[in-house]
Design goal:
By secondary structure, the chain is an alpha+beta fold. It is built from eight helices and 16 strands. The protein has a six-stranded antiparallel beta sheet with strand order 4-3-16-13-6-7. Strands 12-11-8-5-14-15 form a six-stranded antiparallel beta sheet. Strand 3 and strand 4 form a beta hairpin. The longest helix is centred in the middle third of the chain and has 18 residues. It is globular.
Length: 263
């Protein structure tokens, strides 16, 4: 059992070498502590979802019943994925996505009791409220995103750095051609100025129809820096990490995950 933040990483560092694989029972934060600790070691990691969002488990298509999941992982395949690593922040990693704006507000504002009662649905409810508040209050910010030296500047409601393109079981796809094993991260900047813009963005994300225009910008690269005016809360895989600016680099093929065969 973990006893504090960072304990899962300590346990993985101390004990993983003695085992053929490491299984993690918990949420995305615990899973990412272990993935970060074992980054580049080639030690397989099995994820047993036990958190609120369980975004990584959903992205991998894992069954949630433990009696079914564990045997499937033990006789399953290996899946190598990239990780995003924060530069100058103790090497913290993420697997799914990180961002500032609406998504960070959603993480910050979702109460624990609602997460316990509704699970991932709690995030959906709070996210809808955050979108409405942003549009009504015109709560935008200036963002400067530098992707491998190329600068992109926009007024935005949300900026996300994606590694997995799909979230919530592919109900929403963040952008075009986003892969978790291609050696790059994908910056997605969303700039709705009206309810019509917000509806158009959501329609595109759910229908997988992507285009860069005044409301949406996509850029991919190995190293990405995000600066905002004013500073904004930043989250990664559902964990708040502080405020912008942040700098992230891709660690290609850093984590080896166990997945069901033919997943």
């Amino acid at each position: 059992m973990t006893e504090r933040a960072g304990h899962a990483a300590d346990l993985a560092h101390e004990r993983a070498a003695a085992y053929d694989a490491v299984f993690v029972v918990g949420g995305d934060g615990t899973a990412m502590e272990v993935a970060g600790a074992l980054s580049g070691t080639g030690r397989p990691i099995g994820i047993i979802p036990g958190g609120t969002g369980n975004l990584l488990a959903r992205a991998l298509g894992l069954p949630f019943r433990v009696r079914r999941l564990v045997p499937e992982l033990l006789r399953g395949d290996h899946f190598t994925v990239d990780l995003g690593r924060f530069v100058g922040d103790g090497g913290r990693r993420f697997a799914i996505a990180a961002g500032a704006g609406i998504d960070a507000s959603m993480v910050a504002e979702t109460p624990s009791w609602l997460k316990r009662r509704l699970g991932v649905l709690a995030y959906t409810i709070i996210a809808a409220r955050a979108v409405l508040r942003t549009l009504i209050r015109r709560d935008w910010f200036q963002v400067r995103v530098t992707v491998d030296g190329v600068v992109h500047e926009r007024t935005a409601a949300a900026v996300m750095i994606a590694n997995f393109g799909a979230v919530l079981g592919e109900r929403i796809v963040l952008g075009p051609g986003i892969r978790s094993d291609d050696g790059v991260l994908d910056a997605c900047i969303f700039s709705p100025r009206s309810f019509r813009d917000a509806f158009r963005i959501m329609w595109r994300l759910t229908r997988k129809h992507f285009v860069s225009d005044d409301t949406t910008l996509y850029a991919s690269g190995h190293r990405i820096r995000i600066e905002t005016t004013p500073p904004r809360l930043f989250q990664a895989d559902g964990e708040l990490l502080g405020n912008t600016p942040v700098e992230i680099e891709c660690e290609p093929h850093a984590a080896l995950l166990l997945v069901p065969r033919n997943a």
